[in-house]
Amino acid sequence: GAVVSQHPSRVICKSGTSVKIECRSLDFQATTMFWYRQFPKKSLMLMATSNEGSKATYEQGVEKDKFLINHASLTLSTLTVTSAHPEDSSFYICSAAFDSYGYTFGSGTRLTVV
Amino acid sequence: GIQVEQSPPDLILQEGANSTLRCNFSDSVNNLQWFHQNPWGQLINLFYIPSGTKQNGRLSATTVATERYSLLYISSSQTTDSGVYFCAVPLNQAGTALIFGKGTTLSVSS
């Protein structure tokens, strides 16, 4: 139980285009989801907390107009990287808390901007 | 905010060796988790261990909450143990985002 599905697993896009990453909770309702970014050989950096039906909370230094987060239902959160540039290339991971102490993670999306 | 530090950053072992990974955190926590990130990026939850000791096969973990550290023990290491090990604690109360340490990269050779 408590599975989060993340798609796509890998995407290559051209500079200037936008890319949408989906994160779905398959067998539980996730009122809150989290988005992380991971650079090669680095740790996971929290980007934002996604709240169902309300605006996301972004961490300091994360551009909310660059990384648009939508959490329109209890099972789906999306991250859209707008006007992507090569420096946005990274590994993006979503997560959800399925109870007070349990966390589950998506399998990640490797974004390459060319 | 809370700080999480892991050591060592890198560890190279021969198959069959034992190892200890350490995680220090700067404030009291009600949740601490250890993860293994495989070469494909998937995070696998190893332990939820805010205090005490747990064991799962060749892996065990101990958290001393009063002294703000946790240890992950890997015994009789295998090549499949290679990868990055992270500890993580909540940003604040339970249910909030986890904050990750920088990880320990383990390489086990045969």
Characterize the structure shown.
The complex is a heterodimer of chains A (114) and B (110). Chain A is mainly β. Helix content of chain A is 0%, strand content 54%. Chain A has strands at residues 4-7, 10-13, 19-25, 32-38, 44-51, 57-58, 67-73, 76-81, 90-97, 103-105, 109-113. In chain A, strands 2, 4, 5, 6, 9, 10 and 11 form a 7-stranded mixed sheet that branches. A 4-stranded antiparallel sheet of chain A has the order 1-3-8-7, with no helix packed on it. In chain A, β4 and β5 (44-51) form a beta hairpin. In chain A, 35% of the residues are buried. The mean pLDDT of chain A is 94. Chain B is an all-beta fold. In chain B, 0% of the residues lie in helices and 55% in strands. Chain B has strands spanning 4-7, 10-14, 19-25, 33-37, 43-48, 52-56, 59-64, 69-74, 83-90, 98-100, 104-109. In chain B, strands 2, 4, 5, 9, 10 and 11 form a 6-stranded mixed sheet that branches. The termini of chain B are far apart.
